[in-house]
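One record is set out below.
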Amino acid sequence: VLVEDGKNYLVMDTIIGNSIRYIYFVNEENNSDFFIRKEIDRNEKKYLVNLDNEEEFKYAANLFADKHKEN
């Protein structure tokens, strides 16, 4: 995925939490550069949108951390 800043990002993971699909993107050149979007349906089309607030970001980040924690 090419975003407005001209950087390429890859889909690192997709996780569903509270019936919301979260998509995790990582910069293909710098894995500390990442962002999370959520998928919404409007008029039978799917869109990726920003998370609503810091609380939702923490929730989505915790979903990712829980899924990928080492046992």
Remarks:
- The mean pLDDT is 92.
- The radius of gyration is 13 Å.
